[in-house]
Design goal:
With 74 residues, the chain is of the alpha+beta class. The protein has one domain. The chain contains one helix and three strands, in the order βββα. A hairpin with a 4-residue loop joins strand 1 and strand 2. The model has no long low-confidence stretch (mean pLDDT 86). It binds zinc ion (ZN). The site of zinc ion has 6 residues, from loops.
Length: 74
């Protein structure tokens, strides 16, 4: 539907971290949406990379991811 004025509805967010070298990590976040009119889907990706010791300075979603990772390891 080419003339759809999309109305995006938020579905869910997926995020994960990947080691990037010895002391740094790459973080990925994908926000999933669908249009409630034509059901088209879109994904908005956000990326962040940083060193382990700089996580305090990272965006909030990265800190949530890091905390989740720490909790799972305990
Ligand atoms: Zn649409």
């Amino acid at each position: 539907m080419a003339d759809c004025k999309h109305k995006w509805v938020y579905d869910y967010t997926g995020s994960y971290a990947k080691p990037d070298g010895r002391n740094s990590m790459k973080y990925y976040k994908a926000d999933h949406f669908h249009c409630e009119k034509c059901l088209e889907q879109k994904v908005v990706e956000t990326r962040h990379s940083g060193f382990d010791h700089e996580e305090w300075n990272a965006p909030e979603w990265v800190q949530v991811l890091v905390k989740g990772k720490i909790t799972q390891n305990q």
